């Protein structure tokens, strides 16, 4: 399997997941009225989750930037979880859902993201298995795919950082922050009757 095919599949699946997520958020509202303490608290928790996503993805890219397929990275965040970039993205997706003021939508967005990334990971891990054979088999048997096991933590004394990749990952992750003003715009459009509210979720 060629890396270009994996990248094509990844982009297509991520785009489909993004469209599904945006469509869901656009027609959903919270059962907690805007301005109410519960509504605002959920939104602020969502912002914390989004910031965690941005920082976590940037941290993970320090270890894997530019080496995703060619080298089997097993240190730092990759020592406790095989896919920390996607793990933090799932957290970010929950944060996006929370911008509507709904815990249920936050969980739904996280589940959608997890399903999307599961499809992507299957493709990537097939390529890693072809490239790294027994080393990847041992790694995947020891380290969980998504949910981190902090007891497995190990790190390297030195780290070669691909600065451009880290900066690019950070910039890409900042897109998650756009959900904050976007949710406010959606809320205004719903209040004005320009967008239908098909779901009201706690």
Please describe what this structure looks like.
Helix 1 (3-26) runs antiparallel to helix 4 (103-142), helix 2 runs antiparallel to helix 3 and helix 3 packs antiparallel against helix 4. This protein is an all-alpha fold. A two-stranded parallel sheet has the order 1-2. The mean pLDDT is 88. The chain has six helices and two strands; from the N terminus they run αβαααααβ. It is elongated.
Number of domains: 1
Helix percentage range: 55-70%
Mean pLDDT: 88
What is the string of helix and strand elements? HEHHHHHE
Task: Write a concise keyword list for the protein shown above.
single chain, mainly alpha, two-stranded parallel sheet
Short description:
The chain is mainly alpha-helical and 202 residues long. It is built from six helices and two strands.
Secondary-structure blueprint:
Elements (H helix, E strand, L loop, with lengths): L2 H24 L1 E3 L6 H28 L19 H15 L4 H40 L20 H11 L5 H13 L7 E3 L1
Parallel strand pairs: 1-2
Helix pairs in contact: 1-4, 2-3, 2-5, 3-4
């Amino acid at each position: 399997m060629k890396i270009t095919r994996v990248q094509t599949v990844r982009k297509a699946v991520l785009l489909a997941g993004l469209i599904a997520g945006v469509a869901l958020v656009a027609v959903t509202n919270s059962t907690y009225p805007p301005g109410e303490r519960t509504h605002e608290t959920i939104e602020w928790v969502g912002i914390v989750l989004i910031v965690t996503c941005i920082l976590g993805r940037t941290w993970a890219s320090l270890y894997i930037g530019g080496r995703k397929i060619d080298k089997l990275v097993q240190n730092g965040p990759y020592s406790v979880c095989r896919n920390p970039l996607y793990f933090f993205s799932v957290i970010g997706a929950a944060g996006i859902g929370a911008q509507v003021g709904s815990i249920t939508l936050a969980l739904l967005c996280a589940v959608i993201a997890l399903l999307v990334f599961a499809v992507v990971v299957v493709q990537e891990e097939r390529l890693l298995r072809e490239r790294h054979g027994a080393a990847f088999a041992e790694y995947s048997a020891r380290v969980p795919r998504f949910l981190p096991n902090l007891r497995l933590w190990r790190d390297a004394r030195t780290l070669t950082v691909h600065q451009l990749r880290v900066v690019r990952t950070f910039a890409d992750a900042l897109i998650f922050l756009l959900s904050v003003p976007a949710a406010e715009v959606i809320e205004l459009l719903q209040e004005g009757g320009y967008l239908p509210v098909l779901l009201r979720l706690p």
